[in-house]
Amino acid sequence: MAQLIDAAGLSLPISRRGFLAGTGGLLAAATLAACAPGSGGQSAGTSYGLLLPGDVPAQWDRVRAAVNAKLKADLGFEFKPEFINWTNYGSQSLLKFTAQENFQTALSARWLNIAQLIESGALQPLDDALASGKYTNLTATVDQSAFDANRWPDGSVYGVPAVNSAARIHHLIARGDLADKHAPGGIETFDQLEKFWYDVVQKEGLPGYVNRNSPFDVLGAPTGALYAQGWETPDLLPLYFSSDSLLFVPAKDAATTGSADAVPFWEHEPYLESLHRVRKYYEDGIINADRLNADPATLKALFDGGGAATCWGISDGGDTSSHLDLLEKAVPGAGLVSLLPFRDGLSAKPNQTFQADNLVVVNAGAANADAAMQLLDWVSIKENHDLLQYGEEGTDWKAVGDDAYEPIGDYANFPGFALSWRIPLERTYSRMTESEATWFDWSKKYENFTLDPFASFIPDLAAIETEHAQITAAVTEFGNPLFAGAVPVEEGLDKLKKAVDQAGLAKVQEELNKQADAYLSSK
Amino acid sequence: MTATETAPIRTTPPSAAAARPHDARRRRRHRPEPFTIASYLGVGAFGLVCLIPFWMVIAGSLTAESVLSQRGYSFWPDPFSVDAYATIFAGSRVWLSYGATIFITVVGTAIAVASTSGIAWVIARGLPWLSKPLAVFTYIPMLFTGGLVPMYILITQVLQLRNSWFAVILPLVIAPFLVFVQVSFFRGTPQEILDAARIDGAGELRVFFQIVLPLSKPVIAVIALFYAVTFWNEWFHALLFISEPAKYPLQLVLQNLITSVANAADLGTTTAAPVYAIRLAMTVITIGPILLAYPFAQRYFVKGLTLGASKG
Amino acid sequence: MEPPEHDTTSPLRLRTGGGETDTARQTPAKAKAPRSWRGRDYGLVILAAPAVILLVIFSYGPMAGLVVAFQDFNVADGVFGSPWAGFKNFEFFFTSGNAGRIMWNTLFLNVLFLAATLGAGVVLALMLNEIRGRVTKRFFQSVIFVPYFVSPIVVSIFLQAFLAGPGGRGGLVNDFLGMFALPELSWYTEPGPWPWILTVVKVWQLGGYMSVIFLAAITSIPEEVYEAGVIDGASRAQMAFRITVPLLKPTAAILLVLGVGRIFYGDFGTIYAIVGDNGTLFATTDVIDTYVFRALRTFGDFGTTAAIGLFQSVVGFVLVVIATLVQRRYARETSIL
What is the membrane topology listed in the Swiss-Prot or TrEMBL record (chain B) (predicted)? Predict the structure, then answer.
């Protein structure tokens, strides 16, 4: 027997001691578990958590220390943000609310899960605090109309809009060098834009416009990069239970008749025309053919690498900063220009709801909602705001004029949109192109827009949850290929109609109209 | 020769077997058989299919972003660029996170192998009123999981393991799949050796430690390897339970880096990072160390693999 | 030499045997009589305890949360406070017109993946076993294990480069087809080939992983087993297929049963990374997990998600019970449950 055991090599290092080391580790784990501090050592004073999306910014420890030093001196507490990467932010924040975790504020919005949170009573209404007059810095930097536009149907305000412009307009970012070459007269209308695309495809062999699939590219709200009508009359905002589901078009005279009469998007002639146009662009090579499966990073890289004439942009001041450096590196001498080919130019007055894409909400389960409001007020002071968003002046950035900054250090990418964005306080990137600066300034002013008749209409999905989920699935399967131009319009539309009918379109449409009519009559 | 019930093993007394296979092998070396040739070709082809994309990952991670975004791949790093690595290694985060990952991998694998081997042996013992119930008990978690919310509440509130690496380790230390892989190997343990030991008065523990474990090195190496890979790649539990950036494991740091860079495209925040190359560089960075560790596990199950070769 | 036949005589046969009288045969531990445990020591309890404790805490504990499958889940009320909803959460999936197709896809793809990866694992292990030379062997083993580390995102990037090219036009495969004057294919809008493309990806990713398991099994085969074959002058192919392969059956059977239990769980990681929201491919690639993920991502509803998960588990459970019964009937010796 000894021979057998020996043949197997008893002398090799898997021994009882090794095994015990393993089980010993288990015991150690249990012990450690028992003594592990709840959430990191807090040596002195109170420290409040908050949820922020994205990655930890470079140099964060240093900047956080500076912010905390000042916070402590001013308010007597510190803050301790927790960063959750974007892909998981929605589910993780929901989980933390569900687990009744102790954090003060979080980012939420309709495209995240604010409806669910409000319905569950997980968010603190802010009306009393805002009316108390204690938080003057906050109320001075966030327009009252912004609060009003984001009022929930129950009449309360549940979040501070963290936006840096009054309205975000979908538009295009074009290669300035290519525009100069192929459209020397400038691109001011959609026709000129289309001609530019065809020229670039024919003469440069580059796709005209790259973006991943998005219904709003094709069915503008009120503008969309590929939606010609939107640049003529930017006055239509579709209604929807959620933006990845079916879009409905309300009657043009809804505000006067009091009857929304919303119909599925395909019954709206300009939208239908836009579907045909996109199909044509797909076949002519104007748009990228992988809209359905390419991820945004890939397409951004394609544009930044000089592989396309235009890409998608939105008026939040990021057109230049997100593309220029990389583009210049890949294509020496390249430039950027922000294109908003409104027929009426700066006086277009597009419709807007002013609903914020980002709302900073206060956790109702948090230990101290007052402190949360104090923090939101504190970051509304220019000095504090600058420190948080741009870092330490002189080390991380230097001022250029009154309202621009030039980054000189590594600190960047603080998610201000989840805490501190305030229209009057935002500094712009010092290299921002002239065209972007013009349009960004324009988009900061509420008077440049028309308030949509359905501005603060937020439909409640409770009655049709199952149907809605199934319609969403049908839109992903049959709608997206249409929006990408990947299938013939008639054929694709037939499939979509059949699928959503089966999923309960009639019921959902009826529910939407019922709620929309109620909204109109309440105004 | 009598066959056995589970059939994996049949032996003649070892002494008799020792010599001839050696001769046989030596003889065969001179005339390779068709199957051997086919094997070389097959493994070679599959190896190539595995190697080419891997090479493309390495080459791509060192290629300038502009070329990558135009073509989507690169066979040769031209123009050469280390931007992706520079972005990833900016600051000390990635280096720090190696520490966390190594801790999680080493401690996790040790606990996992120890506890998995223990239960696997008890299941493999075939005691009717102990082993079967345990097998079912172990199998059920493979089918039913409680989901995210209860797990989260358990770890953060009941066990108070927030920001502890054990929050990442403990939920993963018993993989039913690997328990059963090990059970199937333990069942092949030669019975007469066990019986001999018992006659000598060895208890269950001694039998396990002095006979079963030493005889099971190949499978333990495999199990350890698989657990190590699981722990090395783990980021989701870290995302859930580790909120202090200084304690992030490597995969979470990289995961965050990627999604933030990727989402920068959507959000218009300032970034000048090469997104394409970063994803490839991240693959290289994460594969590197575990690939270096691989040969250590390998020596246990590559040893004496040749047909008819003697282990002697 | 023939493959060893199975001996189905009483497992108690060896009870009184003891080591000395029985050295010529080896019997697996499974057949060991219970005698040795009772009244002797609690060693086995000690051995099983760590795993049992861990499973109770980290697997069985959270299972209490399965109740949310029957609740109208509410964030503020949490897992145990939410109101009951009966089977309402199950409606969503089953009332969708797609349930049949999606379940079929899940089943079909999983069967494909399981068969292909197991097959590839066995074949690779057999072939690796033929490779001589320590360095060569280690090199190849390492190489075929590498794809396991490549994340689905990177796989998806390369697939797009191969099949679609930048901007979705061209791509390596189409360039290749073009060289032979074959028409280009718009891969990402053609659902037909995708089950096979995904299977190739799975084999590429898991072939090496599976081969490691089988290689370890081959390692545990004592060389004496081959002796008769060597004497008879059997070819290496004969030895591999007549001796080695039958001895790998128990391992393969266990992997198979384990796979059956999860057959209703779609391979979300791979499929979603590659197909994503590309609706044109759903006809053949949409599985339960991707469907649920998409339909519920905007309004993450823990209740519905839990309900679908429970359904998948219960079906898996039923299938495993069936598989185990079949196994007990026809191949008792490989049964694990």
Answer: Multi-pass membrane protein
Residue-range definition of the domain harbouring residue A350: 170-228+265-354
Q: What is the mean pLDDT of residues A80-109?
A: 86
Domain range for B73 is 34-81
Shared domain for A125 and A60, answered yes or no, is yes
Q: Does the beta-carbon distance from C11 to B310 stay under 8 Å?
A: no
Rounded Cα distance, B108 and B98, in Å: 15
Mean pLDDT, chain C, rounded, equals 79
Instruction: Write out pLDDT tens, residues B208-264.
Output: 888 888 888 888 888 888 898 889 888 888 988 998 888 899 888 887 877 766 655
Return the number of other C-beta atoms located less than 10 Å from residue A91's C-beta: 19
Q: Which chains touch C (3 or more CB pairs under 8 A)?
A: A, B
Does residue B22 form part of some domain?
no
- How many distinct structural domains can be found in chain A? 2
Domain ranges of chain C: 99-334
**Is the pLDDT score of A1 beyond 70?**
no
Query: Do the Cβ atoms of C248 and C90 come closer than 8 Å?
Result: no
- Write the ipTM: 0.79
User: Cα separation of A436 and A428, whole Å?
Assistant: 10
Among A90, A307, A502, the residue with its CB nearest the CB of C300 is: A90
Quickly list DSSP for A260-326: ---EEGGGSHHHHHHHHHHHHHHHHTSB-TTTTT--HHHHHHHHHTT--SEEEEETTT-HHHHHHHH
Picking from A469, A478, A486, the nearest residue to C92 by CB comes out as A469
Q: Residue A377: inside a domain, yes or no?
A: yes
For residue A344, the domain's CATH number is 3.40.190.10
- List chains touching B (3+ CB pairs under 8 A): A, C
Task: Note whether B100 and B69 are same-domain residues.
Answer: no
Tokens of A289: 């053919």
Instruction: Point out which residues pair with A360 in neighbouring strands.
Output: A107, A160
**For A381-420, how does the pLDDT look when each residue is reduced to its tens digit (9 = 90+)?**
999 999 999 999 999 899 988 888 888 887 877 888 899 9
The whole-number average pLDDT for the span C69-93 is 80
Q: Name the minimum distance, in Å, from the CA of A23 to any CA of chain C.
A: 8
Domain boundary among A354, A375, A395: A354
Amino acid making up residue C56: V
Lookup: tokens for C146: 């590498």
The C-alpha atoms of residue C82 and residue C73 are separated, in whole angstroms, by 5
If asked whether residues B63 and B181 sit together in one domain, one would say no
Buried b or exposed e, range A59-88, using 16+ CB within 10 angstroms:
bbebbbebbbebbbeebebbbbbbbbbbbb
Structural domain contains residue B26 = no
Please answer yes or no on whether A292 and C282 come within 8 Å at the CB atom: no
